[in-house]
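Handoff note, outgoing to incoming analyst
You'll be picking up this chain. Sequence as last confirmed:
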Amino acid sequence: MTRSTRVLRISCAALSVTCLLGVAACSGGHHKKAVSSSAVNPTAKKSVAPQPQPKPAPKPLAFDPLVGGKQTSGSVVAVKIDDTANGRPQVGIDKADIVYIEQVEGGLTRTIAVFHSRKPVPVGPVRSVRANDPELLTQYGRIAFVASGGGGDSLPALDNSVLRADINDRGGPGFFRDDNRPVPYNLMLDMTKLPPTFGAGAQSIGFTWSASKSGLKGTPIAAQLHTMVGGTPVQFIWSSGLHRFVRVIDGAVQRAADGATIATPNVIVQFCKGHVNPHDVDQAGNPGFFTESIGSGRVAVYRDGHRVDGSWSRKSAASGTALKDKYGRAIPLAPGGAWVVLVDTAAPLG
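Most recent structure output, in case you need it:
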């Protein structure tokens, strides 16, 4: 073999090795994991996933949900108040935003007065809780509920509710006796003695408020209403001078202890199912009565001398009570509060 031949073979071998090394370098990249930029450059910033932004706080209501007027701060306090001749004149009930008339044992009535925009001192006479009260008031949220005590299943029902109970028989704050009234119709409440944080503030209970009368066109004029709650007549008469419905009992206009006329811009007659409650019997042997405030039924709303017929509905204890006319539109209440008369489904209305 000549020297030129040996040189040629060596050159070809070197060229083959170079080519093989190049192919290995190129193909090896397919089997190695990619190196992060931070590994190559320790000072490189790592990418951070965007964090969810907190939801904006809900805007405060432009109106008070319990009266429809200027918004009022502070807690809501519901008080069980006597509604018999022995308990009259009632104290402070004319300052309540919303008042419920409900049936109790023996066909008698009692009231629940809900205070928010005004907190009068004193209030009363304070009477005992009934088993249907927690169901009715839970739509207001964790408000304060004041009563003198309760029999049968009434206090257990209250204890199992969201309400903040202030009970006289349990040593609750704010109670005192008026020596000028007979027992047990002399128990009064001083709401200033309740802790400021005792009970929640006002929230919507489903009512719609509007000073406009445009939605009342075509509704019949109703200057007065007569109905029955249990065995007790309930009557309101429209006063054009006061521009309110005045409560009347046995032909007499009702007045609070301070002489103020008991009147309201709205009366809601709510037809509800109910049943005798054998788990709560009074000392005379009369069983209590449970009014169901969850469900639906007929309603008649009185405002501005008008009567609007429709329906009410409430899906659950935490839900508010919606009032709709026969066309399915919300029935607007005149700002200033309301009295709600809870009657049986077969109660008369005139």
